[in-house]
Amino acid sequence: MATKKIKEIKKEGPAKIYISASFNNTLVNICDNSGGSVAWCSAGASGFKGTRKSTPFAATTAIETAIKKAKDKGVDEVEIYVKGPGPGRDAALRAVKASGVKITLIADVTPIPHNGPRPKKKRRV
């Protein structure tokens, strides 16, 4: 039986952590420079169900799990891209800082509409 080989990431620069914090869940994806996924985790994959997925503690647990997997593959320097309005945003950033990896960039990539679609008509009662 063949053993599974751990893939080493290319050391061309910092890895990228994409944090998507919605109101119901927090998703974490750690990628190398070529865009390939090194490690990922979510609050749901960390064992939380229902409304507990949307807590800051669940986001912290998801981040810690993903960074632990990435550190095993050689990640030591990261850029962080945060997206979404959820409660796990700040907790996720604190968890990354506490994990011991070097942070080179923190960017907010939340999509903001520049006026967006036409709103619904006013409700008449």
TrEMBL record:
| InterPro entries given in the database record | Ribosomal_uS11, Ribosomal_uS11_bac-type, Ribosomal_uS11_CS, Ribosomal_uS11_sf
Q: Tell me which species this is from.
A: Candidatus Woesebacteria bacterium GW2011_GWC2_31_9
Q: Which GO terms describe its cellular component?
A: ribonucleoprotein complex; ribosome
Q: What family is reported?
A: Belongs to the universal ribosomal protein uS11 family.
Q: What is this protein called?
A: Small ribosomal subunit protein uS11
Domain of life (superkingdom) = Bacteria
Q: Name one Pfam family in it.
A: Ribosomal_S11
Q: Which residues form the signal peptide?
A: none
Q: Which UniProt keywords apply?
A: Ribonucleoprotein, Ribosomal protein, RNA-binding, rRNA-binding
Q: Does the record's keyword annotation contain rRNA-binding?
A: yes
The family database entries (SUPFAM superfamilies) matched by this protein are listed as: Translational machinery components
Q: What are the protein's GO molecular function terms?
A: rRNA binding; structural constituent of ribosome
What gene, per UniProt, encodes this protein? rpsK
Give a yes or no for keyword Nucleus in this entry. no
Sorted alphabetically, the Gene Ontology BP terms of this entry are: translation
Q: What does this protein do?
A: Located on the platform of the 30S subunit, it bridges several disparate RNA helices of the 16S rRNA. Forms part of the Shine-Dalgarno cleft in the 70S ribosome.
Please give the subunit comment from the record: Part of the 30S ribosomal subunit. Interacts with proteins S7 and S18. Binds to IF-3.
Write down the Gene3D superfamilies for this protein, in alphabetical order.
Ribosomal protein S11
